[in-house]
Amino acid sequence: MTQFNHAVAALGLTQGDPAGIGPDIALLAWVMRREANVPAFVYIGDPAVLAVRARQLGLDANIEESTVANAVKLFETALPVLPIPTGVDVAAGKPHVAHARGTISAIEMAVDLCFKGEIRAVVTNPIAKSVLYEAGFGFPGHTEFLADLSARRTGNPVTPVMMLAGPKLRAVPVTIHIPLKDVPTALSQAAIIETCRIVAHDLQDRFDIEAPRLAVAGLNPHAGEGGSIGKEDDQIIHPAIRHLRDEGIDAFGPLPADTMFHDEARRRYDVAICMYHDQALIPVKALGFDESVNVTLGLPFVRTSPDHGTAFGIAGSGVARADSLIEALRLADRITTRHRAVA
Ligand SMILES: NC(=O)C1=CN([C@@H]2O[C@H](COP(=O)(O)OP(=O)(O)OC[C@H]3O[C@@H](n4cnc5c(N)ncnc54)[C@H](O)[C@@H]3O)[C@@H](O)[C@H]2O)C=CC1
Ligand SMILES: NCC(=O)COP(=O)(O)O
């Protein structure tokens, strides 16, 4: 298990796709560090890209290459960077397959440093999945890549779970980046049970919720309407919930998904377990796009990320907001310092 020194270790922030808004929001988070009480982080990526982006945005940011040990001290006066040169020119808003190597190396370095206890947590800037796929990246996204890096490191299999957490809603998709048409076949009792076990454990362990209440969404309209609008709710989701309740996990449902996200309904649970990506992410982003955070449960270290993507259309324009990234940094800080008041 990671042995980090809370008093001295920084959070590690990966650059993400350098042509996206990762550099913009990292710079903004550093510039806002005092007024927004941003915990110290070390940027893992290309310092030259940061410097060009700072000029483009007219931001007065002092960017300095750093050692990981010196990062917290340096953070007060400069944005500390562990350099990973991209090796090719990067233009804001212009993704290129040649950027992929540096993007991936930054994630690998962050995980390595976290396992060595030299950073407290991994906070990731957004990656463009299609750019990495073009470069031969073999994972749907960070979530599965981080699990693979962890499993290779520890020798133990890791099941990662994606949770989007905001002030009004936490939601978990059981299936993640797969085509909608493949969701019914990908859903299984085992997948729902395993996901819920990890969620219940991590909400207790990392979010200090003593007895987490898991509201499980149905797949079909009206949760299948007694089997007349689809069989999965009765044949897969309901038995999985029964199994979880027998284990002592407070899971209930399947609930019709259209009526489980309004204000009063959300008071009845701590997390919504959803059957597919958009069922979970649409309500989270509709209720709090700027404040919500993507956090990976089930990993042997803490990983958070903003809830948004690379937003190539606004990179380098000064439009990107750093709110979600700042929340991701704060959440990683709270979990790793074990404060009780977490998202
Ligand atoms: N954690 C990650 O690595 C994630 C990566 N992605 C990737 O991002 C790429 C683009 O995805 P999209 O669906 O277009 O979503 P997106 O989140 O990049 O953009 C959606 C809309 O929100 C705006 N937006 C996003 N972040 C913003 C911010 N911080 N401030 C102001 N406006 C903001 C964009 O300008 C755009 O109008 C895709 O390649 C996808 O794979 C998407 C989500 C998460
Ligand atoms: N839509 C959420 C998303 O794409 C984040 O994926 P990941 O890179 O955190 O696995």
Automatic annotation (TrEMBL):
EC number(s) given by UniProt: 1.1.1.262
Textual note on the cofactor: Binds 1 divalent metal cation per subunit. Can use ions such as Zn(2+), Mg(2+) or Co(2+).
Enzymatic reactions: 4-(phosphooxy)-L-threonine + NAD(+) = 3-amino-2-oxopropyl phosphate + CO2 + NADH
InterPro entries named among the record's database cross-references: PdxA, PdxA_fam
Binding site for substrate: H142, T143, K285, N294, R303
Cofactors demanded by this protein: Zn(2+); Mg(2+); Co(2+)
Keywords, ordered alphabetically: Cobalt, Cytoplasm, Magnesium, Metal-binding, NAD, NADP, Oxidoreductase, Pyridoxine biosynthesis, Zinc
Superkingdom in the source lineage: Bacteria
Localization (cell): Cytoplasm
Family matches, as Pfam families: PdxA (PF04166)
Pathway it works in: Cofactor biosynthesis; pyridoxine 5'-phosphate biosynthesis; pyridoxine 5'-phosphate from D-erythrose 4-phosphate: step 4/5
Miscellaneous comment as given in the Swiss-Prot or TrEMBL entry: The active site is located at the dimer interface.
Recorded family membership: Belongs to the PdxA family.
Known function: Catalyzes the NAD(P)-dependent oxidation of 4-(phosphooxy)-L-threonine (HTP) into 2-amino-3-oxo-4-(phosphooxy)butyric acid which spontaneously decarboxylates to form 3-amino-2-oxopropyl phosphate (AHAP).
Protein name from the UniProt record: 4-hydroxythreonine-4-phosphate dehydrogenase
Organism, as annotated: Peteryoungia desertarenae
